[in-house]
Automatic annotation (TrEMBL):
Name of the protein in question: PDGFA associated protein 1
Biased composition (Acidic residues): 65-74
Comp. bias intervals (Basic and acidic residues): 55-64, 107-122, 156-172
Residue ranges of the region described as Disordered: 1-122, 156-186
One Gene Ontology term, aspect cellular component: cytosol
Lineage: Eukaryota, Metazoa, Chordata, Craniata, Vertebrata
Record-linked PANTHER family: 28 KDA HEAT- AND ACID-STABLE PHOSPHOPROTEIN PDGF-ASSOCIATED PROTEIN
Tree of life domain: Eukaryota
Organism: Sphenodon punctatus (Tuatara)
Length: 186
């Protein structure tokens, strides 16, 4: 430690940030220009390779400058591994084709999702059950009506008994008054 240099493996410098390199804006612009130039050259080669047989889709693309490069990638999909070399037809594979807004059919019948269909079926079943219940055709409705009939009979009997008791009290009260009036008359 008499040399004056301290090699720290500790926390002062750390390993992070040592080899960090920043790309200048000029380098980024140069890379973008190079990529654009390369894409133009490839396009020219493809068009020159086709000759007199012009693909109407490609001609349309060259005329429409509004279309993005993403739509170009729809026609030229990148293959992983040997996928591009071997032609495989998988019947289970579903290729999703993207549609443009102008191609959408808003007036046509809308297909419902499974959950939406189940929800509608559930509501319809509930409505059918309520109609049958109100008509008295379900087991629960029959049981409710039977229970209601029993309760009505019990209430009628209770009302009849009360009426008889009241008549008996009235008769007793009237006979008691007669007896009282008779005893007063004597």
């Amino acid at each position: 430690p008499a040399t004056g240099f301290i090699l720290s493996a500790g926390r002062k410098g750390g390993h992070k940030g040592r080899a960090r390199q920043y790309t200048s804006p000029e380098e980024i612009d140069a890379q973008l220009q190079a990529e654009k130039q390369k894409a133009k050259e490839e396009e020219e080669l493809e068009e020159a390779g086709e000759g007199a047989i012009g693909d109407p889709k490609k001609e349309k693309k060259s005329l429409d400058s509004d279309e993005s490069e993403e739509e170009d990638s729809d026609y030229q999909q990148k293959h992983k591994g040997v996928e591009g070399l071997i032609d495989i037809e998988n019947p289970n594979r579903v290729v999703h084709a993207s549609k443009k807004v102008t191609q959408l059919d808003l007036d046509g019948p809308k297909e419902l999702s499974r959950r939406e269909r189940e929800e509608i079926e559930k509501q319809q079943a509930k409505e059918r059950y309520m109609k049958m219940h109100l008509a008295g055709k379900t087991e629960q409705a029959k049981a409710d009506l039977a229970r209601l009939a029993i309760i009505r009979k019990q209430r009628e009997e209770a009302a009849r008994k009360k009426e008889e008791e009241r008549k008996a009290k009235d008769e007793a009260a009237t006979t008691g008054k007669r007896l009282q009036s008779l005893s007063l008359n004597k």
